[in-house]
């Protein structure tokens, strides 16, 4: 029987197409319009921003002393402490202002002791440390030995009077009083000290019911390499009674104090159970442990040296002001200290009064720490989820197995056409990532050439939405649309064989719908791959991939999937997208925005060796981060655009948004930096005697300008034309801990503000060979400097010791290296020693060149190199600082020199 309207084939086909559209008019009628797609995009973006604001921007109302009561936490009272500490200005180790800060904290602690509950014993101590050596092996401390001396800490121990066993079971709450030399440290970490003092006042009214004591450690020396925590944990007699450690830190200023490191699920569960405003993200812990963020906290000491369980908290708002002059009181958001204090007070009252908490802390060292690891995160800052890592792995493996079974069964039923469609879907993911990354990266390369600054968006981070977000979204769509076109081509071939009787218009429309569904399902593949990798490498934040896989898949299966193999596809429902994305957006959109903000804020200090990185690198880091977020979060939403008749309109809107953002930054209408969000520019008066071997020549003295932010210093020198600065890479400055590869130098009026008596001395006391082993003894005199860095050439030297008087401070063995050097960093108070004895043990393959050859060879490497710091602003430095734009600010770290630095060294052939 010929095929026609009365044939059996036609009769069978008609029900299959019952909901399909049979005409061009109907097809266009059902296409999604630009307003719908734009509305979905706005809802998605607005929803993500709302989640961020609720999760990270919603702070509690600050309380004054009367509202908080005798046993509560008052932000107003804590701010009084912050106000005084910041009024002292920068107070680094060894400064008079730090002595005043320590005296203030001690005086407040004395008042707390006097007003404590009559059944509570408060013990107060001003701890003066001995000289010590801090040799950590992980993270930033590889290849380093950190020495310290003459540090002062305030310790406040609160225990119930009639429970002596509480003295042997202490919960440590720790933060640091000292700041870097460039900031008053309102956020880092005067805010933490203020919170701790107010916490101590409150705890002193509750401790009569405790099973454990609470020890508040206000240390100094944290900014110089965690020396304060190390000196306590290795020297103080209370250290052996500590069972649990809490560290309070800041990597920005204000906002919520977020739990970003935790060791054990029982401690995390205890915090989750009582925290009034929980803020916790294991994703931050994953990033921190990966080394992407070049920083460390005292928590590393408590874990690595003391082996203590604990929790680590930090402020992360406005990370661009970290360690600059802009870390000041006026940027502290109301409610920030209240948030931290309320959470900490509730947790301390719970944990110190709990016998189970104490038992868990005591048994922690006996157990396998891997078993105690947990996944933790908060939902909208209202609830905190905690579950063991082992459970997460089991659950993830179950989901992965089920997903693979479903996909395997589906592909088996679909045969070769289904397998090819699956392959093209995977290709669409790759193309989406490639195009989404390539377009913003091109913008990243262009920005340094058309903008006054290579990173023109730091002061206004919202600009990255237009600069990188728009091209990333456009690139993601282009890559995905290429996959969509390839899918249509494949499906057209399949449908021409399997359903030849379908009308042409209907077939084309059905092919569109089928391709759209495959593109939507490519999101499942993408997140499944991420989940598999995250589970395999035991990444705690893999739960994000789980939510982005399960929720949309469930919505799709519930609203879209059909068990009929002959039914033609329908258009994806908008409600499927909305329902599928609710859980993922709520669980991770706020975190994505916060991570983007932290990345942007970190760009100002990305170049650890100024000039060592290309100008475009900071932009590329931001561009790639934004592209990855766009690809993974927009994968489902973009699949709804491909059969729209208004693709060009949406593309044009993205281009316009990008163009406007580019015009704003290239024209300078929107400033790259402001007085509150400044570009770090360090000004150092350098006195260099490294190349002077005979002692008759004058030291080389100059003013050095350099920045950790990529880019030249052209704008900064506008008002410094009379100071004879020249810039470039023709004279690098080796500051031992880092090298300035691009900067500016001026020799004008650089002879004043220092004296030759301050130039450090490296003197060879002996150089002998015994049984074929060469040994050299060098005396090191740092003169008036109690902060210095010494580099030892490990390509020549096998091992070394450091001795102070008759005490061997650094013994033989255990010396790691980075780029062929081991660095010793010393920081101490005014009474610290300034004379040391360095004994070098040469390696068998060390360079053996005569002195005459050494004099002829200008490029003979250094054996040791020394930088000493003096915290003094010389007249010329003061003049330069005054002339620099207001949007410039010095940046300080433990590796940064003070404003006056002396350099010297010894050649290999001494």
TrEMBL record:
One Gene Ontology term from the biological process aspect of the record: proteolysis
GO CC list: endoplasmic reticulum membrane; vacuolar membrane
Main location: endoplasmic reticulum
Pfam families the UniProt entry points to: Peptidase_M28
Compositional bias segments (type: Polar residues): 1-10
Transmembrane feature ranges: 33-52, 394-414, 426-450, 462-487, 518-537, 543-563, 575-596, 616-638, 650-673
Keywords from the UniProt entry: Endoplasmic reticulum, Glycoprotein, Hydrolase, Membrane, Metal-binding, Metalloprotease, Protease, Transmembrane, Transmembrane helix, Vacuole, Zinc
The Peptidase M28 domain, residue ranges: 158-347
SUPFAM superfamilies found in the cross-reference section: Zn-dependent exopeptidases
GO molecular function: metal ion binding; metallopeptidase activity
Phosphoprotein keyword on record: no
Topological relation to the membrane, as annotated: Multi-pass membrane protein
Cofactors required: Zn(2+)
Annotated InterPro entries: Fxna-like_M28_dom, M28_fam, Peptidase_M28
Localization of this protein: Endoplasmic reticulum membrane; Vacuole membrane
Region of interest called Disordered, as start-end residue ranges on this chain: 1-26
Stretch forming the signal peptide: none
Record's keyword annotation contains Isomerase: no
Role of this protein: May be involved in vacuolar sorting and osmoregulation.
Family per similarity comment: Belongs to the peptidase M28 family.
Protein name: Vacuolar membrane protease
